[in-house]
Specification:
The complex is a heterotrimer of chains A (about 600), B (about 180) and C (about 240). Chain A has about 600 residues and is of the alpha/beta class. Chain A has five domains: about 1-60, no CATH class; about 75-165, Glutaredoxin, CATH 3.40.30; about 170-385, Rossmann fold, CATH 3.40.50.11540; about 395-465, Ubiquitin-like (UB roll) (Roll), CATH 3.10.20; about 470-560, de novo design (two linked rop proteins), CATH 1.20.1440. Chain A has helices spanning about 1-15, 25-35, 40-50, 55-60, 80-85, 90-100, 145-155, 185-190, 195-205, 215-225, 245-255, 255-270, 285-300, 330-340, 365-380, 380-385, 420-425, 470-485, 490-510, 515-530, 535-540, 540-550, 550-560, 570-580; strands at about 75-80, 115-120, 130, 135, 170, 235-240, 275-280, 315-320, 360-365, 395-400, 410-415, 430-435, 440-445, 460-465. Chain A is globular and about 90 Å long. Chain B has one domain: Rossmann fold (3-Layer(aba) Sandwich), CATH 3.40.50.700. Chain B has six helices and seven strands. Chain C is α+β, with helices and mostly antiparallel strands and about 240 residues long. Chain C has six helices and nine strands; from the N terminus they run E-E-H-E-E-E-H-H-E-H-E-E-E-H-H. Chain C has helices at about 25-30, 80-95, 110-115, 155-160, 220-225, 230-235; strands at about 5-10, 15-20, 55, 60, 75, 140-145, 165-170, 175-180, 205-210. Chain C starts with a strand and ends with a helix. The chains are: A alpha/beta (about 600), B alpha/beta (about 180), C alpha+beta (about 240). Chains in contact: A-B, A-C, B-C. The interface of A and C includes residues 342 and 524 of A.
Chain lengths: ~600, ~180, ~240
């Protein structure tokens, strides 16, 4: 057994040429076979790869899809992000526990099923949702759960279940991403220009990155091209992990060809011969389709050597699957992960365009940005810049979820007001909108006349609506819990600060806070924002800080008009001692002020 | 005008901070001119005679009686100072905090290497009930000033008292801030 | 070898630096101390603790990694940054279990020294009180994770100075901790007391056995001078 074990791992390692930068793929294959990583497995991988076992353990322990304790043959990952909770994830969880017979975090004694929670799996528009191994199921109702568990027990094909029919939910197509397309048109148009002309065209179009930061794409490509190097890389960031976003799911299922066109054009423009799509682990179910599309493109001469007979223009694309870590959506963390390491963000400068993947100049672009770049080649910069506003050219995909009658993906022109948008999606009664997901801001109705654009509400695309009766503070707590869970732990302000933030906030929503706690939390939030290494920490206080800013009345209602409330809980603190000695504690009432 | 009143108390600690108060040497004569002592183990007054101006607490909060005492101090002191590492931070008593109380007591009274013929966990009515952890003062009541140190030096205590009594800001030169 | 000189402003003072230097290196050379914790002179910077964060043209940056550029305006000694640093120092204290009065590293501990430097009288945020076991399996070196601040110095020292790989991180977020290159514990690794990693810990998390409490109270490193004194004296002596 053990020898087979070692042999299998050795073969997997050899398949990837024992290349340490392919460690993620190796771990994924080992995981697919054994389901978890024992110390023995870790030792074998270390030996096969000639990497110290502590480094293997480092990597494995970082990603949520890798477990260091045994898991069941089938792992059910129920998403418990905020929107999922709003849509009844708790009831579905109870139904799973009843049907499977174990609690979340546990595995059935026969080793058949593990129940565990996941963060947002990109299915907020059809919440509650779960991944059953790699197969997503959505629109779950507690009464469906029995049949699903039965199907798992009978080893049926999960993808044939009615709940596994994923709605595309593309509610509104715009002229840029979801307009009709033919494979090759954009690449063909680009190849008529010189690489410099392509960059100029992109610059002229005023295209800015769609991931959230909004860096001008043309400038990024130009910087990447201008760094002297033997190799350059294009990386497509398809690791959307912001809770409430799922636009990349729809792009990758409906417009993968446009994404690959964009990558190819980027490769031509910056002088890269190699592109990597970093696809979040939650979307592994799309992998076979995407590989097939890549193969078709190769056959059509749209990938490979001398693309469309352009001499010396070579470009290849591979897809790297992730393994569950929100932070890997941060471009430098993504690059670390691509290189086979834990996904901890890098210090910048140097920026990836100078030293990225393998320390070579690398242009990391969002899926949606690449689609827009391809479309600009097709239709021209002038056409593109007429869409949207002056500072925000083009369209934006918004993933809409929460309390609205038409959740899904909308391609809208930049500059639309929140008020108009909420009519479009059927969220007229919203009492608040979280624009930009957890890391964005909580917007109150008096700001609904403002616009979605780089110059006003800038967003990576997640828009969550909260209807009347929603307990906003509880949801802000849940968003903060998300950051605590997803902090990579590299730097102290984020690692410890987010946990402290949550503790302080608990005091507020449990009614154990005074004005002092409000001031403390504001101060703490500023420290986390200023001192953290990357965007995760710099935005983690946003749910609490922006809700304090825009909904002060919610806080006024729960804080106590006293001087001081300690964190100490007498009843809890004394209960163990009283129980052990069989005594009744002195009443704390007399001493209470 | 009556002299300001001071009260002091020690909770879970070694009494070293009180020793440090006494360690101000001949300045204690000056102090005696400036203040009167109310409730304190130094004069063995066990209850407050009057509300006082300054309360000084040494030690961490580790049983139900401590909670009562501390709250009584907060009620009766205009200004409450925590002195010494046990009172204001993690220190020797709080080293038990990461071990469940039951395990601590069982190790001490039932299973430890010095136990002969089995023992019992003390449960007499007159003994205070231990808390699950040893808490710093400020987790229980509001503390106005913190003097760290194990113990804070006599100079630290003297500086702080003089500043408070003369209405000045508490400022410490580098040598006087110590956690040990 | 020609070295390009750049000039930048640090707290209102013009500072000359060599291109390629970090802000911290340039400040050190100029006798201006920027507080730091995970940084060590013999190691590549890690950027873990963030205490050396300064404002560069109004935006925060880790001075241990940010390269000097001509004309940048750097703020270090501001009230705002001092407050942030004090809070981050406090975070280190409440994350672990630091019992200064009984710790062998007390007086030599850089975290403690930074507490003094930032004038933190005591941490007032709630302690997280994690539970760790001491790893005393090695004959000469032990790990007390209660005192570990995850600065990563031992990882970098083992790799870059000792040519080994005894340590790495494990887990993420608040569950992150130092892990050793063995199935169980430090005793199974090729760690030696003579390794640079064994003496590079800024706190008392990684200690050589039988060496504690040798220096009497009052004569220890930070009893005598505040942290950063060695850098600031350069300026004083011109």
């Amino acid at each position: 057994m053990s020898e087979d074990h070692a042999l299998f791992i050795k073969k997997v390692a050899e398949k990837y040429g024992r290349d340490p930068t392919r460690l993620m793929d190796i771990l994924l294959e080992v995981n697919a076979r054994y389901g978890w990583f024992s110390e023995e497995t870790i030792g074998h991988i270390g030996e096969a790869m000639d990497i110290p076992r502590v480094k293997i353990r480092d990597k494995i322990s970082f990603y949520t899809f890798f477990s260091q304790k045994p898991v069941g043959k089938t792992v059910i990952r129920l998403s418990n992000s905020v929107v999922e909770k709003m849509k009844g994830a708790a009831e579905v969880a109870r139904a799973f526990e009843d049907a499977v017979g174990v609690k979340f975090g546990e595995t059935t004694p026969d080793g058949a099923i593990t129940l565990t929670y996941a963060q947002c799996i990109g299915m907020s528009d059809q919440a509650p949702s779960a991944l059953i191994n790699h197969t997503p199921v959505g629109n779950l109702l507690p009464e469906d759960v029995g049949d699903i568990v039965e199907a798992i027990k009978n080893e049926e094909d999960i993808s044939q279940l009615p709940q596994a029919l994923i709605d595309v939910n593309l509610r509104r197509s715009g002229p840029v991403v979801f307009a009709p397309m033919d494979a090759g048109t954009a690449v063909r148009a680009a190849l008529k220009m010189t690489p410099e002309q392509v960059i100029d065209e992109i610059k002229k179009s005023n295209l800015r990155g769609r991931g959230g930061a909004g860096f001008p794409t043309g400038k990024k490509w130009e910087a990447c091209r201008n760094v002297k190097s033997d190799f350059r890389y294009i990386v497509c960031n398809a690791d959307e992990g912001e809770p409430g976003t799922f636009k990349d799911r729809v792009i990758m299922s409906e417009r993968a060809n446009l994404v690959f066109e964009g990558m190819t054009i980027a490769g031509y423009a910056v002088g890269a011969e190699y592109g990597i799509v970093y696809l979040r682990g939650e979307y592994e179910y799309m992998l076979e389709d995407l590989k097939r599309i890549l193969e078709e493109r190769r056959k059509k001469g749209l990938l490979g050597k001398n693309i469309l007979d352009k001499k010396d223009f070579n470009f290849a694309i591979r897809i790297q699957i992730g393994a569950g870590a929100y932070i890997c959506g941060e471009e430098s963390a993504l690059i670390e992960s691509l290189e086979g390491k834990r996904g901890a963000p890098r210090e910048r400068p140097p920026f990836p365009v100078e030293k990225g993947y393998m320390n070579r100049p690398t242009a990391v672009n969002n899926v949606e940005t690449l689609c827009a770049a391809a479309r600009i080649m097709e239709q021209g910069a002038d056409w593109f810049s007429t869409i949207g506003t002056e500072a925000s050219a083009g369209t934006k995909l918004l993933s809409v979820s929460g309390d609205c009658s038409r959740p899904g993906v909308y391609e809208i022109e930049y500059g639309i007001t929140v008020a108009r948008f909420l009519k479009m999606v059927g969220a007229e009664h919203a009492i608040a909108a979280k624009i930009g997901g957890p890391s964005g801001r909580l917007v109150a109705p008096n700001d609904f006349d403002r616009t979605i654009s780089f110059e006003d509400f800038s967003t990576g695309g997640s828009v969550i609506f909260f209807g009347p009766g929603r307990d906003l503070l509880t949801h802000m707590k849940q968003f903060t819990e998300f950051f605590v869970e997803e902090s990579c732990g590299w730097c102290t302000p984020c690692r410890v600060g987010t946990t402290l933030m949550l503790k302080e906030f608990d005091k507020i929503i449990e009614g154990r806070a005074t004005r002092t706690e409000i001031e403390n939390i504001k101060k703490l939030g500023q420290t986390i924002k200023t001192m953290s290494r990357c965007g995760l920490g710099q935005t983690a206080p946003n749910p609490i800080l922006t809700s304090m800013q825009n909904f002060p009345e919610l806080y006024e209602a729960v804080i106590k008009p006293v001087d001081y409330i300690g964190t100490f809980d007498f009843a809890k603190a004394v209960s163990a001692g009283a129980e052990i000695t069989g005594r009744k504690p002195h009443s704390d009432e007399e001493a209470n002020l | 005008m009556a002299k300001p009143l001071i009260a002091t108390q020690h909770l879970t600690s070694c009494f070293g901070c009180h020793m440090s108060i006494l360690d101000i040497d001949d300045r204690i004569l000056k102090l005696a001119k400036m203040v009167d002592f109310d409730r304190s183990p130094i004069n063995d007054i066990k209850e407050f005679t009057w509300p006082v101006d300054i309360g000084i607490i040494e030690g961490g909060v580790s049983n139900d009686e401590h909670v009562e005492i501390l709250k009584d101090f907060r009620k009766n002191c205009k200004v409450l100072i925590g002195i010494g590492s046990c009172a204001v931070a993690n220190s020797v008593p709080s080293m038990r905090n990461t071990v469940p109380l039951k395990e601590c007591l069982e190790e001490a009274y039932l299973n430890g290497p010095t136990i002969v013929d089995g023992g019992i966990i003390p449960n007499d009515e007159d003994i205070p009930i231990l808390l699950d952890k040893v808490y710093p003062l400020h987790e229980v009541v509001k503390i106005d000033y913190f003097l760290p140190g194990c113990p804070p030096s006599a100079d630290t205590i003297w500086n702080a008292l003089v500043a408070l009594l003369t209405g000045k800001e508490l400022e410490f030169p580098y040598e006087l801030i110590k956690y040990d | 070898m020609s070295q390009e000189t750049v000039t930048f402003t640090l707290d209102g003072v013009k500072v000359k630096a060599t291109k390629g230097q970090t802000i911290m290196e340039a400040a050190d050379a100029a006798g201006i101390y920027i507080p730091r914790l995970c940084w060590h002179k013999d190691l590549p910077s890690g950027g873990n603790c963030r205490i050396c964060t300064v404002m560069v043209n109004g935006r925060p940056a880790g001075s241990c990694l940010f390269p000097v550029e001509d004309g940048i305006v750097v703020e270090n000694n501001t009230k705002q940054l001092k407050d942030h640093r004090c809070q981050v120092v406090e975070m280190h204290f409440i994350e672990g279990n630091h019992y200064c009065p009984s710790c062998e590293a007390s007086g030599e501990c850089e975290l403690q020294a930074l507490g003094y430097y930032t004038q933190m009288l005591t941490p007032t945020s709630p302690y997280l009180r994690p539970k760790y076991e001491v790893d005393a399996s090695h004959p000469d070196v032990y790990i007390d994770r209660d005192r570990c601040i995850l600065c990563g110095r031992c990882i970098r020292a083992s790799e870059f100075l000792d040519g080994k790989c005894v340590f790495s991180f494990e887990g993420r977020g608040i569950h992150k901790r130092i892990s050793v290159n063995a199935e169980h514990n430090l005793g199974e690794t090729n760690m030696e007391a003579s390794d640079r990693a064994a003496t590079i810990c800024p706190t008392g998390a990684l200690m050589i056995k039988r060496t504690g409490y040798r220096i009497p109270v009052g004569k220890r490193r930070f009893d005598i001078h505040p942290i950063g004194w060695d850098i600031e004296k350069k300026k004083k002596s011109g």
